[in-house]
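Minutes, methods subgroup
Present: GH (chair), OT, SY

1. OT presented the first of two proteins processed in the latest run. Sequence and structure tokens recorded below as shown on screen.
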Amino acid sequence: MQQNCYLSIVVPLYNEEATVATVIQQLVKLPGLLEIVVVDDCSSDRTPHILQELANQHPPIVSLRHKKNQGKTAALKTAIQRTRGSIVVVQDGDLEYHPGEISDLIKPILEGRADVVYGSRFLRRDTAICAYPQQYIVNRVLTAAMNVAFGLELTDVETCYKAFRGEILRKMPITSSGFGFEIEITARLAKIGCEIQEHSITYRGRKYEAGKKMMPRDLIAAFFYVFRFSVIG
């Protein structure tokens, strides 16, 4: 591991040709950066071509590709197992979350005050939550369910911005699929007693048609995972 380089960023991607270059170019500027592990979940647009060009320009980029589309959780699982950093941060390939806020997000971990930090969109009033209120309501209901089931006090369980101690995250078994990562990882962290903190972040949600949002089947699966991991394990 390179001296003073401790940060691994994992980026799951699917058809993000319009934004991925901007995101990566911002990530490579982060202090302490060790690697950016990108997993293209079998994109059908120009995302693979753009990633190859970026990887040629920036040595920290580790570019991987699924031969078939498997969903976000599968992409994250592939990426996480390739990380080496003492801190691992999840960054989406769109511009809804600003990479410039990662340094503040990971401070509680660097200072030994937390094992995990969630970037909450609901701790500040000036954040544009979502173009559709349904997504806001779904998130709040899921967060409340997780708080009750696992004795947590979170405000935004479905946030994509999550920072972890690397050794904890790499040991976590991930068995869910689709959008199940957020529920499963939170449940498993709570069960082993990790210190989870939240940090306010800005959020610029894309319109529903432009983003990969939870569908009704994903919502049903999410509540199933809440039940499964709280009762069955």
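2. SY then presented the second protein from the same run.
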Amino acid sequence: MIEKKFIEQNVKELKIKEWMKKQYHDLGYAECFIEKTPLGMRITIYSSKPGLIIGRGGLNIERISKILESKFGLESPHVEVRQVEIPELNPHIMSNIVAKQLLNYGANKFKGIGHRNLQRIMKAGAIGAEIIICGRVPSSRARSWRFYAGHLPKTGDISEEHVLISLKHEKLKVGVVGVTVKILPSGVQMADEVNLKQEHIEIKEEVTEIPEQKKETPKQPKDTKKQKGADKK
């Protein structure tokens, strides 16, 4: 019975997140977190445009709270909207941007859209990033195009815990196109990263005075012939 309650709670949270994503994906919606507090359920929405989600005078917040209470059965829901600090490092926002640009400019511009958004992610400070566009772009058969830059691990703890992934589907004239964005944000300590400390060593030069050597006057050789003559006299 306990396992069943946990499953039902997780399914309910997943439905809430999917509903939020469908409702506000055009308003810079990034992600949603749901947690239980002593006063009720707290729903935190992250967006790059929080003012549009809040609405004038907080009307949208009241509407969201009523829908969460009536449709999903949440008790005393408290909704908060927060600003995403760097939208370019959020894969949910970037996948929505890529999909929207494909819808507006057409599938034939997919290369320019992929490279342009990849540069935006890397300029924001990402260690590595990857954008994959799948579908009938631009040929009649479905295929995938990959745009990547930097260092992005595919396996290991860093790939599972730190690489952020988002998948977005968009219906175009050529058919349904899938956009996958993977980002490794800055500040992640890599396992093979080595930082060398630079130590400044001061070298002191000691000047030693060399004692002056006394100059020895050369001895003059004695004139033996004159000395012998003086002796004879």
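Chair's summary of item 2: Strands lie at 29-37, 40-47, 78-83, 128-135, 143-150, 164-172, 175-184.
Next meeting: continue with the remaining queue.
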